[in-house]
Amino acid sequence: MQAGHFILGLTIATYDWSLPTALYSLGIQWLPNSDALLIKAGLARKGFHGTITHTLFFAFAISGIVFIFSVRYGIITLANLVLHLIADLPNNSNYRWFWPFWKKGFTLALWKDTGFWGRDAIIGSYKQKWPWILEISLLMFFISRLVSIYS
Predict the structure, then answer these.
(1) What CA dihedral angle connects 86, 13, 53 and 134, to 10 degrees?
(2) Cα 25 from Cα 3, distance rounded (Å)
(3) Going by C-beta distance under 8 Å and a sequence separation of 6 or more, which residues neighbour residue 47?
(4) Helix or strand or coil: residue 70?
(5) At what angle do helices 71-88 and 56-69 cross, to 10 degrees?
(6) Residue of 83, 109, 74 whose CA lies nearest to 10
(7) Which of 49, 115, 134, 140 has the fewest CB atoms below 10 angstroms from its CB?
(8) What's this model's pTM, rounded to 2 decimal places?
(9) From CA 81, how far away is CA 55, in angstroms rounded?
(10) What is the pLDDT of residues 111-138, one digit of tens each?
(11) Sign of the Cα pseudo-torsion (63, 86, 140, 115, in order)
């Protein structure tokens, strides 16, 4: 999912709809992919993407820290991080959700992961049908949430 993470973050924000919540939700939704910055900076190997930041351990650790300061944002954080993992499940990346306790990875392998950064990743992803199907479905749900908020 490329644009799907953006739509997912906004959809989660609709449950506490405000500009600060929407911006926060977008940032947290992107957080698991921030490991790409370390790779691009040459501080981590290419295989580092999707390791620690794509685990339930990471989701609960970050959410727990945020929860200390704000219950509401702790819940938003947990929702974003867990749903980020679920959104990545259909690609063939085989993320290890239960690391460090269990090293087995999970994937539905509905489409091929074409990268985590740049033009080639986006084009490669959208040459496949499943990203379109899932992201359009998510967009329709997001629109329905907005209609329910503003009607």
Answers:
(1) 30
(2) 14
(3) none
(4) coil
(5) 160
(6) 83
(7) 140
(8) 0.88
(9) 9
(10) 777 666 667 777 878 888 988 999 999 9
(11) positive
